[in-house]
Specification:
This protein is α/β, with parallel strands linked by helices. The protein is built from 24 helices and 31 strands. The chain has 3 domains: 186 residues, Rossmann fold, CATH 3.40.50; 221 residues, Enolpyruvate transferase domain (UDP-n-acetylglucosamine1-carboxyvinyl-transferase, Chain, Alpha-beta prism), CATH 3.65.10.10; 209 residues, Enolpyruvate transferase domain (UDP-n-acetylglucosamine1-carboxyvinyl-transferase, Chain, Alpha-beta prism). α23 links the parallel β29 and β30. α4 packs parallel to α5, α7 packs across α11 and α21 packs parallel to α22. Bound molecules: shikimate-3-phosphate. Shikimate-3-phosphate (S3P) binds next to α17.
C-alpha cells in the first residue's frame, strides 16, 4: 500500500481475532518490518508463521521481550492483560525491553488496565509513564474468532478508543504514534480517559450483554423452555443473539467494570420499574409518551450508526482510493505574472442554481434552467432531489426539472450526501423537516464541522423533529418525518441567507404565517425566486413573511454569472498589471454587490456597463483596471453583502497602501473553513502582517502608490478544504516574488470548475498537479 513503516519490530501476545487482524492490517500496509508473536495455543502460532502473518515464534512472554522490539501489543482478554503488564514491567526492569518501546493493549475495560499499569510502575519505583503504555480499545469484532477469522479490514471505519489519564501512562508522542497506527489500519481514533471509557462501555456494551444473558437465562429456566424457544419470534432472536458470546470473557468484563456496570444497572432497574407501573396502572398516555421518546431516539441512533459507517468508510484518508473520492488531492503551482488582461464570463451563480433545483422540483409543471452552475455544490442539490424521486435532466448548464409539486417528494433510499455544500444542507433541512418521510443528510469533512443547530433550533420551534447527530451540533442531520409545522416569528441571531431561506422553505408547509426578522439584510434569492414561481412573499425592510399552504408554478430560470466567482477576477484586474479585466453578465443583485462597494472604497478603478434585468435578477458587465488601492475600515453594514468575498478582499488589502480593518465578520469563522484564521495563516506565510480579531482582521498593506511592486513572497498554502481560500491565493500570485503552491485545490470544483483555465487565459501562470 506504500505506507511508511512505523515500527521496526512488533511483538504481539495473543493471536485471537483482534490481534491477528491488527497484524494482518499492519502487514498489508507495510507498517512494521518484522513480527514476533506468542500465544498459549502453539497451533495458532504455527499457522500464523506458515501463512506469513508473523516472522518469528516466541515460546513465551519472556523470550518475546527483546531489545529490538519497538512495539508490544497485548491482545488478550482483560484479566490476562493485567497479569501480562506486570510480567512486561519485570522484563523492562531487567533491561530486556528498550526504553523507547511502546506497549499497547486492546482490552475491553480500561480502568483495571490503568490500575495495573500504575501498579507495575510503582512496584518498580518508576514514574507512571515508565512503560510507555498506551491504553487502546477497538470497538470492533466478528462472530468468528481466532487467527483463521482474521480480517485486515476489521477496523476500517470503526472506532478505536485511546485512553489518556492523569497521571499519564505514556508521553504525548508515544500516544500520537499509536493513534497514527490505528488510523493507518482504517480506524477512527477517539481519545477519552479510562473512567469515561468504562462508563460509556457500561451503557453501550456491558449492560446490553448483561440483559441479553439475563433474558436468555430467564427463558432457559422455564420448564417449558423448549416451547418458548421454538415459538420465540424475532424479538427474542434479536435480543438474545449476544448472549451466545464467551461466558469467561463476559465474566471478566462484568467483574472488571463492576462499578460503572452496577450504576447503569441501577438506572435500568429504576426505568423498568416505571414501565412496570405504567402498565399496571394502564397509564396509556404516559406509556405512549415513553415508547415514542424511545422510538425517536432509536431512529436517530439508527441513522447515526448507519451514517457513521458510510461517512467513515467514504472519508477515511487511509482507505483505498476507490473509497476516498474527496481525498484526491490537487495542487496549483503558480509563478508570478504581471500581464493580466481579457474579457471573460464566469459560471452561473451558486446560490441561484441551488434554489432553481429546489423550487423547480417543488413546482407544478416543468422548469427549464439555463446558466446552471455545474459545480459540485449545486450538483449535490440536484442529486438530492433526484434521490427523492424528481426527474431532472441536465445537458451542461441547461437543466430540465419535472416538478412533483409540494406534496410529491419521495423518501430517499439512503442518506442524502451534501458534499461540501452548506447551502444544500441548511436549505434542505427546512424542506425535509416538513416531509412525511424520515431523512438523513451527511457531508464532507469541512461541512461536517459547520454549525447546523442554527437551522435545527428554529425548525424545532416550528414543530420539526430534527437532530444534529455530530459531536458539536453538526452533521449528520437526522430528521423524523410526519410532523405538523406551525408558523413562528423568528429573529435571526445572525444575518444569514441560509437560515432565512431554510425557514422560508419550511414555512411553505406550515400552518399560518412565518415571520423572519434579519439583523442586517442578506441575499434575497429565495424570496425573489419564490415570487417568480408565483408564491407570495411579503418583504418589509428586514422583515419577511410567508404563509404556508400555497403551490408553486413552474417557470424558466436564467442563472446569472456568479458575482462571488467574478470577485476573484475583479481583484486580479485591480492588483495585476496589464490592461485589466472585463467580466460579462454578472449578477448584480443589490444584496450581493458589497464587494464592488468595498473595492470602490479602496480606490479600485471599477466600471459597470450593459445593465439589464434577466429572470428577475439585475445583471451587468464589470470592468476593472489596475488600481492603486488604499487601506480602509470596512463598513460593517457591507459585511453580509460581501460575505463570501472577504478572502479575496484580504488579498486586495495586502496590495493596498496602509491598513485595512474588518470587524463584525465573525461569521467568516464558520464558513467552509475559519476564513479569518486560515487567511491570516496563509498571508503570514507569504510575508504579510495581519492581526487576527475575534470578529475580523487587520491587514498591513504592502502596496506602494503608483507601483505594481511584489507584495507577497512565495510559499506553500493549505486551503483547508475551502475553495475560496484556494482561489484567493491564486490571485495573490500575480503580485508574488516566487512560486506559490496551493494545496487541496480540488474543492475549487465545488463553485468554479473552470477557474484555473480562466485564470490561465487572462495571464496567470498556473499549472495543476494531481495526486497525493
Ligand atoms: C448562501 C448564503 C451565505 C453564503 C453562502 C451561500 C446562500 O451563507 O456564505 O456561500 O446561498 O444562501 P450564510 O447565509 O450562512 O451567511
Amino acid at each position: 500500500m506504500g505506507d511508511t513503516v512505523l515500527f521496526k519490530k512488533t511483538a504481539i501476545i495473543g493471536l485471537g481475532l483482534i490481534g491477528s487482524s491488527i497484524l494482518s492490517a499492519m502487514r498489508d500496509r507495510g507498517l512494521t518490518q518484522t513480527i514476533v508473536a506468542t500465544d498459549t495455543d502453539p497451533s495458532s502460532l504455527n499457522f500464523a508463521k506458515k501463512v506469513g502473518l508473523i516472522d518469528e515464534i516466541a515460546p513465551d512472554i519472556d523470550s518475546l521481550c527483546q531489545t529490538d522490539v519497538d512495539l508490544f501489543i497485548i491482545a488478550t482478554p482483560t484479566r490476562a492483560t493485567s497479569a501480562i503488564i506486570y510480567q512486561l514491567a519485570c522484563a523492562k526492569a531487567d533491561g530486556n525491553i528498550a526504553n523507547t518501546a511502546i506497549i499497547t493493549d486492546v482490552a475491553s475495560t480500561k480502568m483495571s488496565i490503568y490500575q495495573a499499569v500504575l501498579g507495575a510502575c510503582e512496584q518498580n519505583n518508576q514514574p507512571s509513564d515508565w512503560l510507555n503504555f498506551v491504553l487502546s480499545h477497538p470497538i470492533a469484532g466478528a462472530e468468528n474468532s481466532g487467527v483463521h477469522a482474521r480480517n485486515p479490514r476489521l477496523f476500517v471505519g470503526r472506532q478505536f478508543i485511546v485512553c489518556t489519564d492523569n497521571p499519564p501512562t505514556a508521553k504525548a508522542h508515544f500516544i500520537q504514534k499509536i493513534k497514527i497506527l490505528w488510523e493507518r489500519i482504517g480506524a477512527n481514533v477517539i481519545i477519552m480517559n479510562s473512567q469515561r471509557h468504562d462508563e460509556i462501555l457500561a451503557y453501550t456494551s456491558h449492560l446490553p450483554h448483561l440483559l441479553s444473558f439475563n433474558l436468555t437465562y430467564q427463558l432457559a429456566s422455564h420448564d417449558d423452555n423448549l416451547d418458548i424457544f421454538r415459538y420465540a419470534a424475532g424479538g427474542f432472536a434479536d435480543f438474545s443473539r449476544i448472549s451466545a458470546s464467551s461466558p469467561v470473557m463476559w465474566h471478566d468484563i462484568f467483574m472488571d467494570n463492576k462499578h460503572a456496570l452496577l450504576k447503569s444497572l441501577d438506572e435500568y432497574e429504576a426505568n423498568l420499574a416505571t414501565f412496570r407501573q405504567l402498565i399496571e396502572q394502564e397509564d396509556s398516555v404516559k406509556l405512549i409518551e415513553y415508547l415514542t421518546t424511545a422510538r425517536h431516539a432509536r431512529r436517530h441512533f439508527g441513522h447515526m450508526l448507519a451514517q457513521a459507517q458510510l461517512h467513515k468508510a467514504t472519508h477515511n484518508p487511509h482507505l483505498p482510493r476507490e473509497n476516498a473520492m474527496t481525498d484526491q488531492t490537487q495542487r496549483y503551482h503558480i509563478t508570478p505574472s504581471q500581464a493580466i488582461h481579457g474579457t471573460i464570463t464566469v459560471p452561473g451563480d451558486k446560490s441561484i442554481s441551488h434554489r432553481s433545483i429546489m423550487l423547480g422540483s417543488l413546482a407544478d409543471g416543468i422548469t427549464h434552467v439555463s446558466g446552471f452552475l455545474e459545480g459540485e455544490d449545486a450538483l449535490a442539490t440536484l442529486q438530492a432531489f433526484k434521490d427523492m424521486g424528481v426527474r431532472i435532466e441536465r445537458d451542461g448548464d441547461k437543466v430540465t426539472i419535472y416538478g412533483v409539486g409540494v406534496d410529491g417528494l419521495q423518501a430517499p433510499k439512503d442518506a442524502l450526501y451534501m458534499g461540501n455544500s452548506g447551502t444544500s444542507m441548511r436549505l434542505l433541512a427546512g424542506i425535509l423537516s416538513a416531509q412525511a418521510f424520515d431523512s438523513v443528510m451527511t457531508g464532507d469533512v469541512s461541512l461536517s464541522k459547520r454549525p447546523m443547530e442554527r437551522v435545527a433550533k428554529p425548525l424545532r420551534q416550528m414543530g420539526a423533529v430534527i437532530q444534529t447527530t455530530g459531536e458539536k451540533g453538526t452533521a449528520p442531520i437526522s430528521i423524523t418525518g410526519g410532523q405538523k409545522l406551525s408558523g413562528i416569528e423568528y429573529a435571526l441571531p445572525v444575518a444569514s441567507a441560509q437560515i432565512k431561506s431554510c425557514l422560508i422553505l419550511a414555512s411553505l408547509w406550515a400552518n399560518g404565517t412565518t415571520t423572519i426578522i434579519e439583523p442586517e439584510i442578506s441575499r434575497d434569492h429565495t424570496e425573489r425566486m419564490l415570487t417568480a414561481f408565483g408564491y407570495p412573499v411579503n418583504t418589509d425592510g428586514n422583515k419577511i413573511s410567508i404563509t404556508g399552504g400555497g403551490r408553486l408554478t413552474a417557470t424558466d430560470i436564467t442563472v446569472p454569472a456568479d458575482i462571488s466567482s467574478a470577485a476573484f477576477f475583479m481583484v486580479l484586474g485591480a492588483i495585476g498589471g496589464g490592461e485589466g479585466l472585463t467580466i460579462c453578465q454578472v449578477g448584480m443583485n443589490p444584496t450581493r454587490t458589497g464587494v464592488i462597494d468595498i473595492l470602490k472604497l479602496m480606490g479600485a478603478n471599477i466600471s459597470v456597463s450593459n445593465e439589464t434585468v434577466v429572470g428577475g435578477e439585475p445583471i451587468a458587465d464589470i470592468t476593472v483596471k489596475p488600481s492603486d488601492l488604499v487601506g480602509i475600515d470596512i463598513p460593517e453594514h457591507l459585511v453580509p453583502l460581501a460575505i463570501d468575498e472577504f478572502p479575496v478582499l484580504f488579498v486586495a488589502a495586502s496590495c493596498a497602501t496602509g491598513t485595512t480593518k474588518l470587524t463584525g465578520a465573525k461569521e467568516l469563522r464558520v464558513k467552509e473553513s475559519d476564513r479569518i484564521q486560515v487567511m491570516a495563516d496563509g498571508l503570514g506565510t507569504l510575508g504579510i502582517d495581519c492581526t487576527v480579531l475575534e470578529d475580523g482582521i487587520i491587514i498591513d498593506g504592502k502596496g506602494v502608490a503608483g507601483e505594481r511592486n511584489a507584495v507577497f513572497g512565495g510559499g506553500h498554502i493549505d486551503s483547508h478544504h475551502d475553495h475560496r481560500i484556494a482561489m484567493s491565493f491564486a490571485v495573490a500570485s500575480s503580485r508574488a516574488t516566487d512560486e506559490i503552491v496551493i494545496h487541496g485545490t480540488q474543492t475549487v470544483a465545488t463553485s468554479f470548475p473552470n477557474f484555473a483555465q480562466l485564470a490561465g487565459e487572462v495571464g496567470l501562470n498556473i499549472s495543476i498537479e494531481q495526486g497525493e
